[in-house]
Each structure stands twice: as C-alpha cells, then as structure tokens.
Amino acid sequence: MRVLLVEDDAVAARGITLMLKAAGAVVDQTDGGEDALELLRHYEYDIVLLDLALPDIEGFEVVRRMRISRNDTPVLVLSGMTMPQARVKALSLGADDFIIKPYDKAELLARMQAIVRRSKGFSQPTVRLGRLELNLDSREVMVDGREVHLTGKEYSILELLVLRKGMVLTKEAFLNHLYGGMDEPEVKIIDVFVCKLRKKLARAGADGIIGTIWGRGYMIREPASQDLFPPPFEPIRVAPLSPVA
C-alpha cells in the first residue's frame, strides 16, 4: 500500500509514518495542501490521509480540487474538528471517511485497509485466486491452506498485482510502489524479486499465476476455470454413432 500523508503536525506525522511503515506501507509525507496536489499529479497512491487544518489551504479545498480534476484516490480525513458540519462537508466534497483526533492507531489502520479494499473492488479482506489466498489485512499468503512465507518486498509485489488484477504493471510501477521514488535501485531488481516470488509460489503449488508480458511488465493470470470450479463428477463418455447405411 502506498500512502500520501498530509499532516502539518510533525509529531503526529512521524507517529503515523512509523505505524504505517511497520504495517508494510510506503509513505510519502507533506505538510501542505498545494504540495499534496502536486504529488497527486505525478504519483499514484492507494489512499490519502488528510488533515483539514493545513498552513496553506484547507483540507476541504484539497478534496474539492482532487475530485474536480477527476482524481479518485480514496481520502481519509484526520481532523480535530468535532462538529458534524465538518464531517458532512468533507464527505459531500468527496472524502471517503472521516476520523476524529485523537484516534486509535489500530482503528485508523483498519479503516484504511477497508477503504483501499473497497476502492479496488474487494469487500472482504481475503482474496482468492484459484489455490492462492491473500489476506490484505494480515498480509498472509496461503496456498491450499498452507502459509507461504514471503519477504516484505515479495508480499508487496504480489499484493500490487492482485489489487491491479487484469492490468499489466511495468517494472517502473513496482519500483515506485516499493520505494516511493526514494533511493530506488536498478530496475532489474524487480525481475529478481518476481523470480524469487514465483519460485516460492510454485513450490507451494501455485505455479504460473504471475505472467510476463514481454516488453511491458507483469500481471496476474486468472486460474483456469477447472481449477476454480472442479466438476462434481466424471463426465459421461458417449460412444460415437455408427454411420447410417
């Protein structure tokens, strides 16, 4: 998950950033609304955490401009404003959720995960692709009920592929998602990560789920229909008809 945190309180921003990184997220942080809008023009995020009381423009204005420009990145507002009018205004402008400070960090993370799931078309935390099962909240990967142990980078690659199912993702997109534009290694490192991920999944019994689109990148392959819906009985074999004399 890649997060844009828009928060001008340095202490609060540091605490949220550490919490999100511990949960495996890549976090970009800014203390201004104009900077946030500029970042949103150049990078793709899974969610925006937005304070309303910013030093340059209000968070309300950030949401308004995002939606006018047809940027549909989910927005979770973090605010000390307790009046119902603030919540109503933020939601009517296009925010997806509103949480009042101070908040429980576990609740914040749970709300973020739910918003991101819904934005990608998943109502439940568990996503199944044939024999593969991915829990987007606990970051667990199972094949045929057995856990597959992945590194943080391997899991992030698999999660991104699953959340963007049906899309071809370039190696540059993976780099951007994994490193957030900071201290990015050579692009060939993505091939190394994908190779190791494929081997682990294959050993567990989920071979071939990550496809290579030559010259473009990688994408998730839909399991064959027979893997998803095995027949309940053996088909009846009918002998061919004899030719009529």
From TrEMBL:
Residues 2-116 form the Response regulatory domain. GO terms for biological process: regulation of DNA-templated transcription. SMART domains: REC (SM00448), Trans_reg_C (SM00862). One of its GO terms (cellular component) is cytosol. Keywords: DNA-binding, Phosphoprotein, Transcription, Transcription regulation, Two-component regulatory system. The keyword ATP-binding does not apply. Residues 124-222 form the OmpR/PhoB-type domain. InterPro entries: CheY-like_superfamily, OmpR/PhoB-type_DNA-bd, Sig_transdc_resp-reg_receiver, WalR-like, WH-like_DNA-bd_sf. The modification 4-aspartylphosphate is found at D51. Gene3D superfamilies: 3.40.50.2300, Winged helix-like DNA-binding domain superfamily/Winged helix DNA-binding domain. SUPFAM superfamilies: CheY-like. PROSITE patterns: OMPR_PHOB, RESPONSE_REGULATORY. Residues 124-222 bind DNA. One of its GO terms (molecular function) is transcription cis-regulatory region binding. This is DNA-binding response regulator.
